[in-house]
From TrEMBL:
<comment type="similarity">
    <text>Belongs to the aldolase class II family. AraD/FucA subfamily.</text>
</comment>
<protein>
    <recommendedName>
        <fullName>Methylthioribulose-1-phosphate dehydratase</fullName>
        <ecNumber>4.2.1.109</ecNumber>
    </recommendedName>
</protein>
<dbReference type="InterPro" id="IPR050197">
    <property type="entry name" value="Aldolase_class_II_sugar_metab"/>
</dbReference>
<keyword id="KW-0479">Metal-binding</keyword>
<keyword id="KW-0028">Amino-acid biosynthesis</keyword>
<feature type="domain" description="Class II aldolase/adducin N-terminal">
    <location>
        <begin position="1"/>
        <end position="180"/>
    </location>
</feature>
<dbReference type="InterPro" id="IPR017714">
    <property type="entry name" value="MethylthioRu-1-P_deHdtase_MtnB"/>
</dbReference>
<dbReference type="Pfam" id="PF00596">
    <property type="entry name" value="Aldolase_II"/>
</dbReference>
<comment type="similarity">
    <text>Belongs to the aldolase class II family. MtnB subfamily.</text>
</comment>
<comment type="pathway">
    <text>Amino-acid biosynthesis; L-methionine biosynthesis via salvage pathway; L-methionine from S-methyl-5-thio-alpha-D-ribose 1-phosphate: step 2/6.</text>
</comment>
<feature type="binding site">
    <location>
        <position position="80"/>
    </location>
    <ligand>
        <name>Zn(2+)</name>
    </ligand>
</feature>
<keyword id="KW-0486">Methionine biosynthesis</keyword>
<dbReference type="GO" id="GO:0046570">
    <property type="term" value="F:methylthioribulose 1-phosphate dehydratase activity"/>
</dbReference>
<dbReference type="InterPro" id="IPR001303">
    <property type="entry name" value="Aldolase_II/adducin_N"/>
</dbReference>
<keyword id="KW-0456">Lyase</keyword>
<keyword id="KW-0862">Zinc</keyword>
<dbReference type="InterPro" id="IPR036409">
    <property type="entry name" value="Aldolase_II/adducin_N_sf"/>
</dbReference>
Length: 187
């Protein structure tokens, strides 16, 4: 993610669900391209840290929201790429991605003829309130994809495991960059 420019400064966070149900997540404030050995810690499904002297990602509540809602989710990634940030500022309540071959990286989309509606949530420093908005968007659209945008902030994506989440993020970033490029072209 760092080599792609998706986690500038200390942006972004990364988590996995451990076999015993705990969540391993990046600690807050570290550069995600230079995560030290002790730069990852564990929290429970409600985001409570096991090591009370360490601070988990400020966005732990969003990762836990994913794991609580989707029992199959095993890894979640959050980045602040230019396409995710700019498109989320230009978009309405959702971004529709249609006609891309890479849509096949998302579940249940066997052909490029399908489409996904990516929710765009208003940003909020109150993570519990932001998660409530995310939950509302999931409830409103049962066909929601395993990802969403936060306006002016970035993207979240999840999958069964870390390679799957990275693959999905890469596909999504590619399509968001294409959307941005398309908006630059004269109509
Ligand atoms: C400097 S980025 C602002 C916080 C943020 O949006 C982010 O993704 C990183 O926060 P964390 O607490 O996980 O380091
Ligand atoms: Zn962030």
């Amino acid at each position: 993610m760092d080599s792609r420019g998706w986690v500038p400064a200390t942006a972004g966070n990364i988590s996995v669900r451990l076999p015993d149900g705990r969540i391993a997540i990046t600690r807050s404030g570290f550069h995600k391209g230079f995560i030290p050995e002790d730069g990852v810690m564990t929290v429970d499904l409600d985001g409570r840290p096991e090591q009370s002297n360490l601070r988990p990602s400020a966005e732990t509540g969003l990762h836990c929201g994913i794991y609580r809602r989707f029992p199959q989710a095993g890894a979640a990634l959050h980045g602040h790429s230019v396409p995710a940030t700019v498109l989320s500022r230009l978009a309405g309540p959702q971004v529709t991605l249609a006609g891309y071959e890479l849509l096949k990286a998302f579940p249940g989309l066997p052909t490029h003829e399908a489409a996904i509606r990516l929710p765009v949530l208003e940003n909020d420093q109150d993570i519990a309130r932001l998660q409530a908005r995310v939950t509302e968007a999931w409830d409103a659209d049962p066909a929601h994809p395993p990802g969403y945008l936060i306006r002016g902030h970035g993207v979240y994506v999840w999958a069964e495991d870390m390679p799957g989440a990275l693959l999905r993020l890469e596909a999504l970033e590619f399509m968001l960059a294409c959307e941005l490029e398309a908006r630059r072209l004269p109509r």
